[in-house]
Amino acid sequence: MWMQGKTVVITGASSGMGKGIAQRLIVDYGCNVIGIARSEQKMKKFVEELGFYAGKFSYRLFDVSVRENWENFAAELKENGTKIDVLINNAGILPKFKRFDRYTIEDIENVMNINFYSAVYGSKILFDQLMESDTPAIINVDSSAALMALAGTSAYSASKSALKSLTEAMREEYRGKMYIACVCPGFTKTDIFRNQGETSGKGEKAMNMISTDCDKMVDMIVRGIAHHKALQVHGKDAFFMDVFSRLLPVNGPRLFSNVMRMAKLDLFDDVFKD
Questions:
Q1: 40-76 pLDDT, tens per residue?
Q2: How far from 198 is each of 62, 98, 151, 221, 260, CA to CA, in Å?
Q3: Which of 7, 40, 66, 96, by CA, is between 20 and 30 Å from 108?
Q4: φ and ψ of 170, to 5 deg
Q5: Nearest CA-CA partner of 73 in 91, 60, 90
C-alpha cells in the first residue's frame, strides 16, 4: 500500500491507459493526481466522469515534448509548495506503419520527442523534487516494441528502445533510493492507432483480436506498480515478442514480419508494397 495518498504526475492522462491509470490511482489508492495532456475538452470530460473523486484530480495543458514546458511546470510546483511523489511518463504516439525510407526526418524527430525526450525532460527536471519524497518513483510506460522491433516500426521501436535503456540504467543508478520501473504493454485497445489513417474492417478486426482490453491492461499495470515490479510485460503479443526476441533474436522479427505480410492488411501497405 505504498501508493496510498501519494501525489502523482502522469502524462497522457486525457485518454486511454493514462486516463485509466489516473482513475485507478485516485479511486483505489486515494492519490492526488496531476494529469498532463493537450486536450482541455478531454480533461474536462474526465473531471466530470470522476464525479465524487474530482477533487483528487487537477490538470495542466502543455506539450510534453517541449523542455521549457516542463521547466515552467516544475517552477509552478515549487511556487505553490506542491510536493510530488511519483512521475508516470505515459504519453506516446504510434506513427503510421511505414518502411524507414518512407518516413520524413520530421516524422522521426516527432516520435522521438514525444516518446523518448518527453520522459527525459520530465524525469530530469522533476528529479530533485521527486527525491524530496519518502517514496520517490518514476514509472515509464514503454512498449513491447522495445522488446522486439517489427517491420514498419523503425522510428517507434527506436524511441521505445531508447526509453527502455534509459529506464534500466537509471534503475541501477538509483537502486535503493528511488523506485524506477519500465512497463512494456502489447497492443491495447486505445486510440493509439489514430495515426494509422483509414483501415478496412478486416484490419480493425485483426488488430482487435491481438489487442488487450484497456481496462484489463490498466489493472495489470497498476497492480505491478503497487508491487514495485521493476519490469512489466503485459499482453499475449508482448509475451511472445519477449520470448522470441530472446530465443531467436534475428529470425524472431523475420517470423513476425512474415505473419504481417501474409495477413495482407492495408495497415501494412506502406511496409511491404513498393
A1: 999 999 999 999 999 999 999 999 999 999 999 999 9
A2: 28, 14, 20, 30, 18
A3: 40
A4: -65, -35
A5: 60
